[in-house]
Design goal:
One of its GO terms (biological process) is ribosomal small subunit assembly. Belongs to the TRAFAC class TrmE-Era-EngA-EngB-Septin-like GTPase superfamily. Era GTPase family. One of its GO terms (cellular component) is plasma membrane. It is found in: Cytoplasm; Cell membrane. The chain has two domains: about 5-170, P-loop containing nucleotide triphosphate hydrolases (Rossmann fold), CATH 3.40.50.300; about 185-290, GMP Synthetase, Chain A, domain 3, CATH 3.30.300. Helices cover about 35% and strands about 25% of the residues. The protein contains nine helices and nine strands. It has helices at about 20-25, 70-80, 100-110, 130-140, 160-170, 185-200, 240-245, 250-265, 285-290; strands at about 5-10, 45-50, 55-60, 85-90, 115-120, 145-150, 210-220, 225-235, 270-280. Strands 2-3-1-4-5-6 form a six-stranded mixed beta sheet, with helices on both faces. A three-stranded mixed beta sheet has the order 7-8-9. Helix 6 runs antiparallel to helix 8 (about 250-265). The chain starts with a strand and ends in a 5-residue tail after the last helix.
């Protein structure tokens, strides 16, 4: 049997653990993780190279009910990720039944002709009866080539999941060199780390009205320290002091936590300068959304 390779989409409701799953397989944090909806905005490609296969993962925004142009844009991107996939991974939780929203999503998947794998995540939080009932309910849809129960946080069955996906890929070339883990730039990944901390530390509409752009990154002489300047964009003037915080405490904490992630990613010390700027109503303007989120079309 020859080398296998292909593109794999990871789809599912918000917060089922899609980014956590890919990060766990990669052995390195490349995608942001947040309990808040819409934390994933970009179709990031992560490349997992195994001895006999190369899996190119496309992480998608969580499926959710759209409430504004930004959320409609994200939902459109999620379904657009289906085009050109060799295998689709759908993630859910052990609800004990077929979740109503998953059932609606499955209507969009009926015309997908390539294999679909169901991953039931968070099995460490479910009873045996809940898991068995979930497996039976989803199997009855007839959509799935195979079902793999997993726990991303506990590492349960992750190797089985990866091998199952690899076996379903077609024979093909090695698209990326072994050392490549993502097709996104370092600046992009750094911006995602900063945005993750905004999601974790702020509330209400603030996380969904912010965008991050790295505008400068350069190693100092000797290569032991990296200077990073990033702009945090908010949609309204009233949101700027919330990001900055009383006496600058919020922006300092965002910077402190983000710097830890960036230093772990780069393996170097980082000087991080965060600047908060207002880009009025950018999350309601389709052109601004595409521009700030790094999309075409």
């Amino acid at each position: 049997m020859g080398f296998k390779s292909g593109f794999v989409g990871v789809l599912g409701q918000a917060n089922v653990g899609k980014s956590t799953f890919i990060n766990a397989l990669m052995g390195k944090k490349l995608l942001i993780v947040s309990e808040k909806r819409q934390s994933t905005r970009h179709r990031i490609q992560c490349v997992l190279t195994l001895p006999g296969a190369q899996i190119i993962f496309v992480d998608t925004p969580g499926l959710h009910q759209p409430v504004d142009k930004l959320s409609k844009y994200l939902l459109k991107q999620a379904y657009a990720a289906l085009d050109g996939l060799d295998v689709l991974v759908y993630m859910t939780e052990p609800w004990g039944k077929l979740h109503e929203y998953d059932e609606k999503v499955f209507d969009h998947l009926k015309n997908f002709t390539n294999p679909i794998v169901l991953l039931i995540n968070k099995i460490d939080l479910a009873s045996k009866e809940q898991l068995e009932a979930t497996q039976a309910a989803y199997q009855q849809t007839g959509l799935f080539r195979t079902i793999v129960p997993i726990s991303c946080t506990q590492g349960a069955n992750l190797g089985i999941a990866a091998n199952t996906i690899a076996e379903l890929l077609p024979e093909g070339p090695k698209y990326f060199a072994d050392e490549i883990q993502t097709d996104r730039s370092t600046e992009f990944v750094i911006a995602e780390f900063i945005r993750e901390k905004i999601y974790q530390l702020t509330h209400k509409e603030i996380p969904y009205s912010t965008g991050v752009e790295v505008v400068h990154m350069q190693e100092r002489e000797g290569g032991k320290l990296v200077d990073v300047i990033a702009n945090i964009y908010v949609a309204r003037e009233s949101q700027k002091p919330i990001i900055i915080g009383n006496g600058g405490r919020m922006i300092k904490e965002i910077g402190r936590l983000a710097r830890q992630e960036i230093e772990a990613f780069l393996g170097k010390h980082v000087y991080l300068d965060l600047q908060v700027k207002v880009r009025p109503n950018w999350n309601e303007d389709e052109a601004e959304i595409a521009k700030l989120l790094g999309r075409e079309g």
